[in-house]
TrEMBL record:
Pfam family, one: Zn_ribbon_NUD
EC annotation from Swiss-Prot or TrEMBL: 3.6.1.22
Catalytic function, reaction form: NADPH + H2O = reduced beta-nicotinamide D-ribonucleotide + adenosine 2',5'-bisphosphate + 2 H(+); NAD(+) + H2O = beta-nicotinamide D-ribonucleotide + AMP + 2 H(+); NADH + H2O = reduced beta-nicotinamide D-ribonucleotide + AMP + 2 H(+)
Keyword annotations from UniProtKB, A to Z: Hydrolase, Magnesium, Metal-binding, NAD
SUPFAM superfamilies on file: Nudix
Domain (Nudix hydrolase): residue spans on this chain: 196-323
Coiled coil (UniProt feature): none
Species, as recorded: Ceratotherium simum simum
Protein's name according to its UniProt entry: NAD(+) diphosphatase
Cofactor dependence: Mg(2+)
CDD domains hit by this protein: NUDIX_NADH_pyrophosphatase_Nudt13 (cd03429)
Amino acid sequence: MSLYCGIACRRKSFWCYRLLSTYVTKTRYLFELKEDDDACKKAQKTGAFYLFHSLAPLLQKSEHQYLAPQHSLLELEKLLGKFGQDTQRIEDSVLIGCSAQREAWFALDLGLNSSSPINASLQKREMETELKGSFIELSKALLQLNVKDASLLSTAQALLRWHDAHQFCSRSGQPTKKNMAGSKRVCPSNKIIYYPQVTPVVITLVSDGTQCLLARQSSFPKGMYSALAGFCDIGESLEEAVRREVAEEVGLEVERLQYSASQHWPFPNSSLMIACHATVKPGQTEIQVNLRELEAAAWFSHDEVAKALRRNGPYTQQLNGTFPFWLPPKLAIAHQLIKEWVEKPICSALPA
Ligand SMILES: NC(=O)C1=CN([C@@H]2O[C@H](COP(=O)(O)OP(=O)(O)OC[C@H]3O[C@@H](n4cnc5c(N)ncnc54)[C@H](OP(=O)(O)O)[C@@H]3O)[C@@H](O)[C@H]2O)C=CC1
Ligand SMILES: [Mg+2]
């Protein structure tokens, strides 16, 4: 689908109107809302709001899944009025996207910044009754959300958390002011602009050509193994971060890398996961697990991994006291990386 958009481009001596795709139209509209506070405020009038309380999204249970209800500005104003909150609070909302019809979507947290935490938790229960839903921790609900809601709520939570944690200028100590869309904060005294932070994390599936290396941290659910992950250090390239993390965590050197995909991951504090395949040098497969980082790491055969992919964890303890081997859920990029390797063990054939 495409739309004629009012954006004109000057070509030679006449104006021509280009046919813009829906995606470009949406992207340009969101750009305008981020840049122009008045346009953003106007968009709130016809927009839809997703509600949070202390970073937990408002959800409604429907059969086996959760739905994220939307509220209009009018409904939100009524709700705030009913709970004795100032409608000025709506200015704390952040822009998180828009529909193909240019309905802007916002997220607002009704619990953060409350003058009294006791009052906030009392209001939470009453609000849940009024809104016919519950504020549920995102980690507990994510697997039961559809893809669109999961992505929107993850983005919303990340942005709301960033604003909550960055209310003061780190140079002047003065309170910073958010723009209407919430795409930045500015210090009024020295004009320093703060943008939401993205933390890059590499996740690597190491292979020796026939087996792949999986590991677990003690904090993982019992029996679950994943690919090796680690935060990028400042000044590192993606390739350097992969080589360092693999060396740090399992004492191996990787020599061939292939980028696979990336994903925004909301836990525990929002990261940009960058997924890669890598291979070890031939014959160099002896693992030395760094026990400060990992509980265990091991090589797994193609068959073992293919079988585990077909199962869904978490599992209960077996009679012999152990837990069956299982892999991260489909939503996690680790799952996609492992699935890619099972379907096509690409690393053995990579160029140097
Ligand atoms: N979506 C997916 O498929 C998967 C996602 N992940 C995610 O990847 C992330 C990183 O994996 P993990 O193995 O824990 O990372 P690391 O191997 O880098 O180890 C984590 C430790 O590194 C330190 N650290 C360094 N920089 C940072 C930073 N910017 N933020 C937080 N801690 C930092 C912390 O140590 P200290 O506390 O001592 O300061 C932390 O405990 C996790 O958030 C995890 O949720 C992991 C696997 C799969
Ligand atoms: Mg790690």
